[in-house]
Amino acid sequence: MADLKNDRFLRALMREPVDRTPLWMMRQAGRYLPEYRATRQQAGSFMGLCTNPELACEVTLQPLRRYAMDAAILFSDILTIPDAMGLGLYFAEGEGPGFERPLQGAADIEALEPERAVSELGYVMDAVALIRRELKGEVPLIGFSGSPWTLATYMVEGGSSKDFAKVKALAFNEPAVMHSLLEKLADAVALYLGAQVAHGAQALQIFDTWGGALSHAAYREFSLNYMGRIIEQLPKTAEGRRVPVIVFTKGGGQWLEAIADCGADAVGLDWTTDIGDARRRVGDRVALQGNMDPSMLFASPERIREEVTTILEGFGAGTGHIFNLGHGITPGVNPDHVSAMVDAVTGLSGQYHAP
Amino acid sequence: MADLKNDRFLRALMREPVDRTPLWMMRQAGRYLPEYRATRQQAGSFMGLCTNPELACEVTLQPLRRYAMDAAILFSDILTIPDAMGLGLYFAEGEGPGFERPLQGAADIEALEPERAVSELGYVMDAVALIRRELKGEVPLIGFSGSPWTLATYMVEGGSSKDFAKVKALAFNEPAVMHSLLEKLADAVALYLGAQVAHGAQALQIFDTWGGALSHAAYREFSLNYMGRIIEQLPKTAEGRRVPVIVFTKGGGQWLEAIADCGADAVGLDWTTDIGDARRRVGDRVALQGNMDPSMLFASPERIREEVTTILEGFGAGTGHIFNLGHGITPGVNPDHVSAMVDAVTGLSGQYHAP
């Protein structure tokens, strides 16, 4: 493997000194880029893109050609694991993802095989290995997975949901069954992320997209616990270097202290949290990632620059901040506005890291 | 007007002693009730129901016939004001609300007339007066409105939105234009709520459904400020009694201290906040309303009772708690499960109010 030329991202995750604040962007390989849309069309379908390592590699690298991002993130979907477990993932036009065979009860859960998260997902590992090779050490590669709770919501609801009625009814009425599902998913995610590391991922992010739909108590019981269980099982180092883990619970701003104690190296923040307050709350336990409102990219370049300044100033001096959006970039954003954000971070953040 | 027989709700809002914790339920007049669905069918359409004072009164009273609720809430829609301002509200089957003529820019905003929130909404005032009369003093009547920010999101987006791209672009790029819209809406809401009080409403709630989509700073600038501006303009008393105001920002759990300072008598909590923590944070500045996860009503009666106990115990001894869900009740809930919740609150809460 080529030596890593830019380790700013990995260093900031470990709260080691850096020359400026590193940045990347959730969903940076995405529909806002014309070159992404062209490759997506070439692939024929979204899953066609995910399952083709060459095309997945291509879209992963596209944003790096445009912007001074300090990390690449594997292009894939958060629902590969349930698909590998036999639920039949599909994407209907204009709708969210769906499963042909959602979980109907305890027997379906009993039959789930966590090992399939590795045995059936060779295409993901091939993509990881290829991307890592093609990166040529320019920046580190982030592997990722959905959180057990987030995967469970789709697997039980059969797709996206507004109120999570089915999965919450299962959690509230049959907690033992729900816990057996979450245990299996945690083990599957741990295997999956471990395999991504084995194939070249240098940092990991767990996307807990729907943890914020739970109550404070239910979040700890059904989501956070299982992210901790995953982290316990992950390799701490690879290639002689720490493999840092970022946990991102959208809507988790009230629970930062608890999240900071789950074993992760860094906590992702959505834009509802003041990053300065967040830093005071978590102290030096974890690094913080975030947290510009993705919709700020619809504002003018001047306004974007102002917002970047506010966030950098909010975190303040010292390491431990990875600049990012507070959620994935929205389709329809002008790519030049991303440049404005990147230029602001790279141009303005050095002063917070003066030796 | 008949004397008020049950003032538990109004007393708790003012943090005065009560014999047990009062309760009501957001969207208590709603689709989970078969009698509501029958009246809705009779009305022909949702707006037909809203604009017919007799039918609006009927559905307002329906949940009170089943459950020991301590308040009635006017049956209406949060988007009556923009409709009255000429935007043309419609409800397409299976979609959310929409506007035929969304706001396109500064000229459209300039043309908006706040007075129309009263002059065009006689049907709302007729419903308020009729409901108040028909309540015969059994329980107090809550009037309500959407918050200026929440109304603005629909008026600019033209309907529901996932990312609020248009309204946020307006707020970020042309803050002066956005503020002129929000000022007009605040004044319209103040007139509207004032007229509801004049027609018999005894307490008021401002529903800030989409405040939680903003960043911490943008929330204060674009939502909370304007709820404060409304409260300043409202009559403090009517019929010789304080008219308490509840502010409910869904997703506002991180900002409770600021919300508690906006001038409201009570703050609504969604289910992501621990109500005990919330009480410690706001002290005796405001009463708290909430905060059971609406999806808990899909659980068993035993589990519901357990959750009610946890919330009552979480708030602890003393007045200042109004039991409610953390958001509107979900269609599809079994009405017997609501009974389980109501029985638990009425049966178990007395111990927290021992003299």
Description:
The structure is a homodimer of 355-residue chains. The first copy, chain A, has 355 residues and is of the alpha/beta class. Helices cover 48% and strands 12% of the residues of chain A. Chain A has 16 helices and 11 strands. Chain A has helices at residues 8-13, 34-43, 46-50, 53-66, 80-87, 106-110, 116-119, 122-135, 148-157, 165-173, 175-198, 216-233, 256-260, 275-282, 301-315, 335-348, and strands spanning 72-73, 89-91, 97-99, 141-146, 203-208, 237-238, 241-242, 245-249, 266-268, 287-292, 321-325. In chain A, the strands form 3 sheets. A 7-stranded parallel sheet of chain A has the order 1-4-5-8-9-10-11. The first copy, chain A, has a two-stranded antiparallel sheet with strand order 2-3. In chain A, strands 6-7 form a two-stranded antiparallel sheet. The longest helix of chain A has 24 residues, at 175-198. The radius of gyration of chain A is 19 Å and the shape is globular.
List keywords for this structure.
homodimer, 355 residues, seven-stranded parallel sheet, two-stranded antiparallel sheet, globular
Short description:
By secondary structure, chain A is an alpha/beta fold.
